[in-house]
Every structure is written in structure tokens, then in C-alpha cells.
Amino acid sequence: MLRTSRKPLIVAGSCVLAILIPALASTPAQATGLAVCTGTQQTNYSPGLTLTARTVAVDNERALTCTSSDPGAATGHISDIFTYSLSCLDLHANDPGFDLTIVWADATTSTFSVTTSVTTNVGGQLVFTDSGTITAGKFTGEPVTDIGTEVAPSLLDCLGSGLRSSSGVSTITVT
User: Fold this and answer.
1) Residues linked to residue 156 through DSSP beta bridges, in sequence order
2) How far is 41 from 162, CA to CA, in rounded Å?
3) For 108-117, which contacts have Cβ atoms below 8 Å and span 24 or more sequence positions?
4) pLDDT at position 32, please?
5) Of 4-18, 48-62, 111-125, 152-166, where does mean pLDDT reach its minimum?
6) SS3 label, residue 155
7) Can you say how many angstroms the Cα of residue 8 is from the centroid of all Cα atoms in its chain?
8) Within 13 A of 3's CA, how many CA atoms are on the CB side?
9) For residue 9, is pLDDT > 70?
10) Do the beta carbons of residue 78 and residue 87 sit within 8 Å?
11) How far apart are CA 52 and CA 90, in angstroms?
């Protein structure tokens, strides 16, 4: 009876696996959507927010790191100033009908028209969810969702000159 050795097959299979496993392990996972961005946000209020609603300038800055099939959308930045009637008891205006502009890494922009805006307090965390559509620039016509989370202010912060700033995290998804 003629016996053949399986040793060459085992060695060849091991070599293939040795090449493929590191290559597969180093391949980054693709996020669902055209761009998924996460980062920090800083919001300043002038004058500060108090317990009574008053007209306040809101300066919102966000720095985002993105996963996208478009290399020009590797990072994003939002810098917007709005004027609203706000108080510490209503930190985010649930007011759709405003635009946000994202400036991407390649200096192109996307204008995001907010059509739905909802803020909830979940365990001392304010969670705001804005949704709408990209109306101009990169990803025009695509739906977008912006979810931000920050610590709800202490009412003590709202006394005197009021709450002057808040910060948190933000996730923007363009699908």
C-alpha cells in the first residue's frame, strides 16, 4: 500500500493562514453609512443660562473624527452660532428648522437641514437628537442624524450669572 504524506499540505495551509490572518485582522471595519462621525462638542451661552428663559447667543463647536468611504470626510468640524430663548430648565431648543454646516477634511461642506429635534433627560444626561437631510454640498440628498449627550446642569450652576458653558459628545451619521 502506497502512503502519501500530508505534511506538505499542512505546511502549505499553514503558510496561507499565516499570510491571511494578519491581513484580515488589520482590515478596518466599515461603519454603516456614508459617514459616521464621533467627537466632542463645546457650547457657550451668552449671557449665561438662568432658571428663567431669556434670549441667549449659543456658540456650538464640534470636532469630529469620521469613518467614511470618502477620504475627504475623514474629519469634520461644526461651528455655529444661534440665538434662542433658553433657560437651564430647557437647555436645548426643541426647534427644528435650522441648518448646521459640516466642514470636512478636504474643505468641502455639507449643509444639514434639521427637520426634527428632540431633547430628553436620561439619568441626568441630556440627549438631543436632530435629524434631517443634507441639502447642499457633499452627500446632498442623504439623510443625517445628529445625537449629542451632555451632563444635565445642576440648578446651582444656573444661579447668579448662570450657566456659561456645557460640553459632551456627538455622533453624526450620514446614511
Assistant:
1) none
2) 20
3) 108/72, 108/137, 108/138, 109/136, 109/137, 109/138, 110/134, 110/136, 110/137, 110/138, 110/139, 110/140, 110/144, 110/174, 111/135, 111/136, 111/137, 112/144, 112/146, 112/172, 114/146, 117/92, 117/93
4) 53
5) 4-18
6) helix
7) 52
8) 3
9) no
10) no
11) 10
Buried b (16+ CB within 10 A) or exposed e, 130-157: bbbbbeeebbeebbbbbebebeebeeeb
C-alpha cell at 36: 459616521
Q: Distance (Å, rounded) from C-alpha 154 to C-alpha 25?
A: 45
Burial 53-65 (b: 16+ CB within 10 A, else e): eeebebebebebe
Q: How many residues does the chain have?
A: 175
Q: How many CA atoms are closer than 13 Å to the CA of 54, on its beta-carbon side?
A: 13
The residue type found at 97 is G
**One-letter amino acid of 148:** G
* Among 119, 101, 110, residue whose Cα is nearest residue 35: 110
Give the global pTM.
0.75
Distance CA 145, CA 116 (A): 9
Written as one letter, the residue type at 147 is I
